[in-house]
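Quick question: who can interpret this fold?

. . .
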Amino acid sequence: MKAYLAGGGIASLASAAYLIRDGGLKGDNISVFEETELLGGSLDGDGNADKGYVIRGGRMFTYEAYTCTFDLLSGIPSLGNPAITVKDEIYAFNEKHIPNSKARLVRGGQKVDVSTMGFSAQDRLDLIELMATSEATLGARRIADMFQPSFFTTNFWYMWVTTFAFQPWHSAVELKRYLHRFIQEFPRIQTLGGVRRTPYNQYDSIVLPLTTWLKAQGVNFVTGVRVADMDFKYGPRGKAVERLHVVEHGVPKLIAVGDDDLVFVTNGSMTTASTLGSMTRPSELTAKDDKTDGSWALWETLAKKHPEFGKPSAFNSRVDESKWLSFTTTMKDPIFFDLMEKFTGNEAGTGGLVTFTDSNWLMSVVLAAQPHFIGQPKNVQTFWGYGLFVDQIGNFVKKKMSDCTGEELMTELIGHLRFDADKDKIIKAANCIPCMMPYITSQFMPRVKGDRPAVTPAGTSNLAFLGQYCEIPDDVVFTVEYSVRSAQTAVFALLGLENKVSPLYKGEHDPAVLYRAMKTLMS
């Protein structure tokens, strides 16, 4: 048996690991096709002290909810200490770096009292109604359809929306799922006390040890290759992929798929068409096309011929509603970190997101524990930030966030923090690299049943869909957990294994969790 995986993101990497660990496949019978030269998909981390470091985003984890992720990482040796696993390494790191944000929200240069959520009686009723309404009833309704305007100025909304990157026009179904999935985080959203992080960025902490282990097992990683189409044959067990159309460095090729072989497809990508700027140049907004991303193109090609494979346009056709901009800043002077630690009361790595509620861009920043990159010099620090309303004019820089250079982003941030006295010194030491991501929240777009294909579509026998745009009941997208769960689900189903997929944590079934959540709701 051979397995072919289209896409080199975390979902494919996890699938390869489960095929070996649980399915007994030999690594050299597994081929991962990735059109770029890098593996890891959206879990990236790159750069150096001179050119500047870049991550497009930072992933937060919780022990309760990330059962599949930690199951996967429990079998991958740590790069730094092969005697322990990556899971062990993450647990040990978080015993030393316990989050307790003392400046979750900032307004007017001052920390906001977040001891209450700021709900009205109507807000509470609306939240309860949303959680109780079925997904079929909600359909394609947006979050804004479910609440009165004042809800979107509550402490809760500012903290929840920036932790998970929701917009008022996103799917009400997705917010409902998040409220259920992370109900245990509701009482500690103001401190981010349940958040767990990796020792470094997710590429260095997860992708690198995982790919190192997979390569040692003999897995074939074929970069510079995109899967463009698939041919199907029909038989008693339904339709099966019999041929892959691939393009290798511009040259079309065909790959025959045997009767016992399996095919895994990562359909869609939230970091498609990302572009980087610099201290003197903004990042450009570009749209995907067949040359910039094969994962969307493959899905669109398959869905045209097979409607049961979903509807990509439900997610990738509204860039103005799915885009936002992040930035990574490399500092060669400790002044900014010193000022932030004094202002927030948190050492780097213990505070989590700091959100400026009066920011026209709804800007947030986070200082991770240092170093955040393998090989990062001791005299260099990095931090990450993002803004949700990138088409708005800044409060201090009178330009759209999307039109700003790295220096202008830093100027706006310094203005919100009231660090003006040290502005020149901070700017001189900073290398801020903006990153525009047109499709970063496309998985949150309003949808209806059938817009996302099942992990293993009915009527197919050797095909599975992976990643953020397949349908997994009750779980939430924009998480590493969703991608890994899709991998675990796909491998166990296609191989007919009796293994059970790691259980979904359902805190609403725990009376103690429910009590704490209700107490917070009434605050």
